[in-house]
Specification:
This protein is an alpha/beta fold. It has 19 helices and twelve strands. It is 47% helix and 13% strand. Strands 5, 6, 7, 8, 9, 11 and 12 form a seven-stranded mixed beta sheet that branches. It has a five-stranded mixed beta sheet with strand order 2-1-3-10-4. The radius of gyration is 28 Å and the shape is globular.
Length: 434
């Protein structure tokens, strides 16, 4: 009897342990899957987190809207937009990639910098991603590796042109110029009226190459010259290119006082506050300027030719999104790539960001952006130094910037600027090495 009693107590104790364990497991399972999306079979799916690296710190709130749209169809993929300061992004990204880390999704600089990352093996090929065929070849080339594979989904087209304050023009009876001489006369009229004609400073070199991208084609001839120089049929010492540098020098009398010490923030503010009438800068500045002055009415005009050619607006693919080859969630990242390649995203992008989508045929609700988009389709020329001459160490683009800064400090001549750029390009640009 005593033996049977002990067996009964042992059995009861075992039963209590089993029941307690079952309850504990049930509770733990509920906590583990709580709030997680259900898969089609009724179970739960693990949530994957993707990070996006970018230099566009000002776009954080807008990307939250993009991510929210993506999550409507992909609730199990969490996406975090984590940008770095514009001037620090390249260094931060390259350091992370060299360490086998970095964001899952990478905002690529256009052309040479992005292609270099692909060639170094840091990016995952995207050939076969749905929607890529909807982009023109010229847009895809901005993030195509030298192996011919596609590594990025084109995001937007950027343009550079002359913005102007409509109210200042109207109040002073001024019209958009149709020739270079009319443009110079207009600038002089503004100066005579004690209005800063052109908001530009030379403190930051990239501003100067951007403005040369606007002014240059008016003197070297746009697409015809670009085609010749990329084939090695002409070079930077040519009279056409030297004249484009002379034009940059001619414009300095229309810059603000002490322009040598002015940077991006300074010249943007001069234009936004109505102190300066014109602002030679990129389409990405539209919303930034409006943020400073919601009441400003911005117009634009293509840069009129000095040699009897058609006016031009400078345009290029200014960024693509790619997948980190070392990402632990490449398949989920490719789903985000597929979303970026849809017309749904392209429409959302152009309306929220007030930028031109790289996907053709996407219309904007913003009148100014629509006007720029239409101009791109008709009279665009490439930003030559970005698209074709961002190679070398230092790059030919950076060399142009440094030498232009020297010119504005009185330490370099237009001919000297052109000579230095040519010497740099000859160190790496194969058509110049024949």
């Amino acid at each position: 009897m005593k033996k049977l009693g002990k067996l009964w107590l042992f059995g009861l104790f075992t039963l209590i342990l089993v029941l307690a364990t079952a309850c504990s497991n049930d509770k733990g399972g509920t906590e583990k899957t709580e709030g997680k999306p259900k898969d089609e079979g009724g179970g739960s799916k693990e949530t994957v987190t993707l990070t996006i690296g970018s230099w566009r710190t000002e776009d954080t709130a807008k990307y939250e809207k993009v991510i929210a749209e993506f999550n409507k169809k992909n609730p199990d993929i969490k996406v975090e937009f984590k940008p770095s300061k514009n001037t620090e992004y390249n260094t931060i990204l390259n350091t992370a990639l060299q360490s086998g880390e970095g964001p899952d999704i990478i905002h690529l600089r256009p052309y040479t910098p992005g292609i270099a990352l692909a060639d170094a093996g840091y990016l995952e090929p995207l050939d076969g991603v749905a929607g890529l065929n909807d982009f023109p070849e010229a847009a895809l080339n901005a993030s195509k590796g030298t192996d011919g594979k596609q590594y990025g989904v084109p995001l937007n087209m950027s343009t550079t042109q002359m913005f102007y304050n409509k109210k200042i023009f109207k109040d002073n009876g001024l019209k958009e110029p149709k020739t270079w001489d009319e443009f110079i006369k207009l600038a002089q009229t503004l100066k005579d009226k004690k209005i800063v004609p052109i908001a530009l400073g030379s403190k930051e070199g990239w501003l100067l190459s951007a403005v040369h991208g606007i002014v240059g084609p008016a003197h070297y001839g746009g697409n015809e010259f670009v085609e010749k120089i990329t084939k090695g049929e002409t070079n930077f010492n040519s009279p056409e290119f030297v004249n484009s540098i002379k034009a940059m020098d001619e414009l300095k009398k229309f810059f603000p006082d002490n322009y040598e010490g002015l940077g991006m923030d300074d010249i943007r503010t001069l234009f936004a506050t109505g102190t300066a009438a014109m602002f030679p800068m990129g389409s990405w500045e539209i919303e930034v300027v409006r943020g400073l002055n919601p009441d400003i009415e911005i117009g634009f005009f293509p840069m009129p030719s000095a040699i009897g050619k058609e006016a031009t607006i400078t345009a290029w693919v200014d960024g693509s999104f790619a997948v980190n080859a070392k990402s632990k969630h490449k398949e989920e990242a490719k789903k985000f790539m597929e979303f970026l390649a849809t017309k749904e995203f392209a429409t959302l992008f152009t309306n929220e960001f007030k930028m031109i989508s790289a996907m053709p045929g996407v219309k904007s609700q913003d009148e100014l952006v629509t006007g720029l988009s239409e101009a791109v389709e008709k009279i665009s020329t490439p930003y030559m130094m970005v698209v074709h001459f961002a190679g070398g160490n230092p790059t030919s683009k950076a060399t142009l910037e440094t030498e232009l800064q020297g010119m504005y400090l009185g330490k370099q001549t237009p001919e000297g600027v052109a000579k230095k750029v040519q010497e740099n390009a000859e160190t790496w640009f194969k058509p110049f090495q024949k």
